Amino acid sequence: MASWRWSLIVVGVVVIAGMAYSLRPRSYAPPPPSFPEPGIIKPGPSLVFTGTDSCSGRACHGALEARAPDTQAVLQDEYTRWLLHDPHVNAYDVLLNERSRNIARNLAGPGQAVKAAHEDQRCLACHSTPAPLAAGVPTIQGVGCESCHGPAGKWLDVHVTASWKAAKKFEEYGMIPVGETADCAKSCAGCHVGAAPDSNLPAHDVNHDLIAAGHPRLNFEYAAYRANLPPHWNVKVKKKSADEDARSWAVGQVVSAEQALELLAQRAKPENKSPWPEFAEYDCFACHHSLGESWRQQRGYGSRLPGALPWGTWYFSMAEQLATEARDTELVAALQKIRQDMEKPTPKYTASQDVLQKLARFRTAMGKQFNQESLWNLLRNEQASCDSWDMAEQFFQAACALYPSDQPLPMQLQELEEARAFARHFDSPKGFDPGSFLKQFRGALKQVAPK
User: Fold this and answer.
1) For the chain, domain boundaries
2) What DSSP assignment string belongs to 327-370?
3) 98-137 per-residue burial string, b: 16 or more CB within 10 A, e: under 16
4) Which of 331, 336, 354, 404 is at a distance of 20 to 30 A from 74, taking alpha carbons?
């Protein structure tokens, strides 16, 4: 009887949630324009979006409960989990809240016409699932299945047949193989880092104007984002080893650097007529900080010249550390050259495919060779410096990759929470001293390091 009642409750919750979702007021929010998919897929005429509802059948991915969770990789309740738990489902609704309205007003400026966030290309590019209007596919369902898995027009029917082969997913059918770390990270980074536009894609670009208007800064870290995402895949069947967790962190770091470099190349084009340099790529807290922070005066300029702003502190700091640890001197030199150029008061940057190729080769190597011991060695390296909150936080996130995401961190690392967190009521690390943090961090690592 108790089991029957529980099943009835689950059915009721899902039905009510689905009805509430489908019956939301829509008159004030017309379907946004069509924007093809961010990430590694570049949809063309043959890649058609079918909409998230096409995955919701009870016999497909809309089951109320997981099926054969001990043996079956696909649980068939993925749509239900997305609908009830995944934050991406609310991505479009966010554009209708007060903060988004304020951002829209700030972007317009005094006396200018305000373009609503839910109608603005800059917002819709990442906050909705792109779909051709001609197909009549609604896009107000937030970031749905096809945003990550690719347009389903060619594979929706065939992917449930016996002839479906993983090797053909991308090349023949346009499905993104998210089971591969690099492909999954690239798909995420299209929005969470940014992407240049092309003939099918608008720009995915949270620049300094958007941040100044009130948009949160983008500081994507693949391993942490994936760990915090409610899983709609079978964790039991796809359980990863400690080496795979560390490898996923390393590959995610390199993919983020690749994506950031591609976006930099787009921002640097003179025909864009956008502000240059783009301040969103620099250390925010090099400018936004209290004037009386003594550690800055004690540190001085370090290796930088007066007037040079610290560039790439989030997306390139760990990529450079990884390349240094792997003794890839060519990649280290290439990244340092870009940094030196971008830290000049009037930087000049010319897109270099050579650096991207070096990063791609390095990413492949990390995917094969990097393991938990490699990560321990990187974090133990006494030569590694830390001169910003960005770098300190990246060190901490790297340490988190040493431990399974479903288990608590060792108490010694948990105690660093207060040292790295922003003070109450502050949106910046008031009083944060990266040198002191690094000392505490290394002390904690020594206590938890394997003997």
Assistant:
1) 24-148, 178-451
2) T-HHHHHHHHHHHHHHTSSS------HHHHHHHHHHHHHHHHH-
3) eebbebbbbbeeeeeeeeebbebebbbbbbbbbbbeeeeb
4) 404
CA geometry: angle 81, 5, 22, nearest 5 deg: 40
The reported pTM is 0.85
Cβ 86 vs Cβ 148: under 8 Å? no
Comparing CA positions, the residue from 125, 129, 123 lying closest to residue 104 is: 123
Determine the length of the chain: 451
Burial per residue of 250-280, b for 16 or more beta-carbon CB atoms within 10 angstroms, e otherwise: bbbbbbbbbbbbbbbbbbbeeeeebeebbbb
Look at residues 207, 248, 230, 184 and name the one whose alpha carbon lies nearest to residue 39. 184
Show the tokens assigned to 255: 């993919």
User: Tell me, what DSSP letter sits at residue 311?
Assistant: B
| Bridge partners, residue 195, by sequence | 204
Nearest to 322 by CA among 268, 260, 395, 271: 395
* Exposure on the CB side of residue 181, measured as CA atoms within 13 A: 24
Look at residue 201 in the predicted model and tell me its pLDDT.
61
Q: What is the pLDDT of residue 146?
A: 87
What tens digit of pLDDT does each residue of 395-435 get?
999 999 999 888 889 999 998 887 888 877 888 888 888 88
Alpha-carbon distances, residue 263 vs 37, 191, 202, 269 (angstroms): 16, 11, 12, 10
Q: List the structure tokens of 88.
A: 């991406």
Main-chain phi, psi angles of 112, to 5 degrees: -100, 150
How far is the C-alpha of 142 from the C-alpha of 401, rounded, in Å?
29
The β-bridge partners of 365 are: none
Report whether pLDDT(386) > 60. Answer: yes
Rounded to whole angstroms, how far apart are CA atoms 174 and 42?
A: 9
Per-residue pLDDT at 192: 96
Whole-number pLDDT of residue 239: 64
Q: Are 355 and 261 in contact (CB under 8 A)?
A: yes
pLDDT digits (tens, 9 = 90+) for 48-61: 778 888 898 988 99
